[in-house]
Amino acid sequence: MLTRIGTRLSQLHSSLMDAPPVLDVLQRPHPLLARIAQPYTKEEICSDETRRFVRSLKATAEAQAGVGIAAPQVGVSKQLFVAGFEQSKDFDAIQPMPATVFFNAQIHVEDTQRIPMMEMCLSVANLCGLVYRPNRILIRYLDEEARPRAIRASGVLAAILQHEYDHLVGKLFLDRMTRRDLKRALFTPTGIAPPDFPNL
CA-to-CA distance for 108 and 143, rounded, in angstroms? Predict the structure, then answer.
């Protein structure tokens, strides 16, 4: 019995040691958040160092209860973000997407109609506001094996991907808001999004 307990404790310790570290998230007005990020080479994408970084990026997004996070938000000015949204009874009209890693993303607008969405950001503490974004997009990117991929997205998922992509070009959601809507930005002291939209 003691042997089994000791083995289990050893396994738990090993699991904790292998867990990727949760990274600190930069807050505005940190200058790195306004910088255009640099692309990855295929060799960099496939490196062990980048794979470890991606694991930490995913762990950080999960710890912050975010549906996405970009490398510049944790102090790395490179073209990488992670985003994903599961099917939910609260957001059943939203196109689901498993957690996906995007390197060197490029967005192509396929519908110029803009839809409003309340957004907030891990790097903009306690604020949310109304942003108008194109309704349909095509996003081309490299995956974790440096293979070219493309996803078509619409509605809220399209907004999420555009929000994360903005971090790669030095923009926050506040930069996409009209002056009028900026004056109406909501203060959320808990840092939790209102119940009618997901936490970006």
Answer: 18
Report the sign of the C-alpha dihedral through residues 138, 113, 86, 174, in that order.
positive
For 163, the token pair is: 């929000």
Q: Which amino acid is at 125?
A: A
Q: Which of 53, 54, 57, 78 is nearest to 69 (CA)?
A: 57
d(CA 113, CA 135): 6
Q: In whole numbers, what is the pLDDT of the chain averaged over residues? A: 86
Asked whether residue 108 carries a pLDDT value surpassing 60, the answer given is yes
Alpha-carbon distance of 85 to 96, in angstroms, equals 5
Active site residues: 164
pLDDT tens-place string over residues 122-163? 999 889 999 999 999 999 999 999 999 999 999 989 999 999
Per the structure block, which two tokens stand in for 85?
């949204």
Alpha carbon separation from 96 to 68, 93, 103 (Å, rounded):
13, 9, 20
pTM score, whole prediction: 0.83
What number of other Cβ atoms are within 10 A of residue 61's Cβ? 25
The label of the residue with tokens 């998922």 reads 157
Phi/psi of residue 186, each to 5°? -95, 140
Q: Residue 17 above 70 pLDDT?
A: no
User: Which of 166, 22, 26 lies closest to 102 in space, CA to CA?
Assistant: 166
